[in-house]
Amino acid sequence: MAEAEETKGPVDKARDLISQLKEMEHYSRSNIEKLTAMCLQLEDELKMKKASDVVAKLLNAQHAFEDQAKAVVEALEAECERLDKKKAG
């Protein structure tokens, strides 16, 4: 397996990174769903507005992470496509 990793070119390695980022993005969406539920429970059911506000800040940070991860994935995919076209051309 280590030999296969060594023979990968930059584009293949970038695609591996894209896969890892997409997995992180998937978990980010799961975290967003859980944090949203926590926020609602804290505010509506438990009447803990201050705690809900703290969780809301964490939720905003998770949204920002997801947005940035998507942007990096898009940039890497575009670069891989550019390099593939250059190689084929």
Distance between the termini: 31 Å
User: What is the count of β-strands?
Assistant: 0
In helices, the fraction of residues equals over 70%
Relative strand content: under 5%
| Mean model confidence by pLDDT | 94
Total domain modules: 1
Runs in which pLDDT lies below 50 for 5 or more consecutive residues are none
Q: Please, how many helices?
A: 3
Q: What form results from the Cα inertia axes?
A: elongated
Largest sheet: none
N-to-C series of helices and strands = HHH
- By secondary-structure content and strand pairing, the structural class works out as mainly alpha
Could you describe the 3D structure shown?
With 89 residues, this protein is mainly alpha-helical. It has one domain. Helices cover 92% and strands 0% of the residues. It has three helices and no strands.
Question: What is the element layout, followed by pairings?
Answer:
Blueprint: H1 2-7, H2 10-45, H3 49-88
Helix pairs in contact: 2-3
Task: Describe this structure in a few short sentences.
The protein is an all-alpha fold and about 90 residues long. The protein has one domain. Helices cover about 90% and strands about 0% of the residues.
